[in-house]
Amino acid sequence: MSRLRLILASTLALIAVLPASVGSAAPAECQQYTAHGFCVVTAETGGSNGQSPSSPRSDGGGGTTPAAACTDTRLGATVPCSDAGGWWSQTKQCYVRPLDNPPPSDSPMWGGRTDGALYFCTPFTNGLSFPGTNGYTFWSATPPAGPAAVDPAVLARQALDTVVLPSPTAGRYPAGTLSDGRAYTVVNAHTWFWTDADSYRPTSARADAGGVWAEVTVTPTALTFTPGDGSATVSCTGPGTAWQPSAGVWSPSPSGCDYRYDSSSLQQPDGKVSAVYGIRWSVSWRSSTGVTGTLPPLTTTSTAAFAVVEAQTVVTR
Predict the structure, then answer these.
(1) pTM (2 decimals)?
(2) Alpha carbon of 251 to those of 188, 254, 260, 310: distances in Å?
(3) What is the DSSP string of 295-314?
């Protein structure tokens, strides 16, 4: 019995000197871009949300749940959030798992309790945990909290924050310069509009934390043109087609990206219209958990100012 008291006393002493959990937060930071516009970010936050590792999240995302990071404060290092020894307990600073083949309830290890369960605490040693060794057994009424649940929707938004989307280039025909220096197009002509193909392509980024990653993909869905004469915005799928002489002077754009002005801009204060080009983007994401979703669409824009003139009044320099 004296030996048992010694073991229990040593166990309590070990529990008493275990360091408290330390949480730290770092903003998402882009670590690498490739030629394909792929960005890898790491977003880490310490702490626990009080859930056991086997408890799935059911909030559907959309919150501000932090990403998990598991740290061994004794070593001052980040450790895997799960291991052969179980799941990492930030509070106890060890890997925790239910005790295999627990003793009967009348064993002194239960301390007279009839609820809860016995667990084994395995420290992180030399980069590994060794289940059943170098640790101790303890009782807990509820499963010790594991790492904070990682919400892939939050990671997806963090990944999206690292994406830099291009604005459309303001391609247009008819295009030229009047004698007073104003760029122009012509009344009743099919004014083609387009953007460079490089500005109209999907891009992706990924954020990962706590063993979970989410990849966001931003895809162009339409090129828009707000003519600046009070008319509604028009749009077409794709980046449009750059005008070529072989298309003819007055032909419509084969991609449908064109607009016809029905009056000149001479009535405008500066004799010009200010047209707005836009690229609409859809945003979708997938994650290593199998959960997928979408985020609100985005639009990038650019502006071009030019005169709209009658064909017979065009005077170039």
Answers:
(1) 0.58
(2) 11, 9, 11, 17
(3) EEEEEEEEEEEEEEE-GGG-
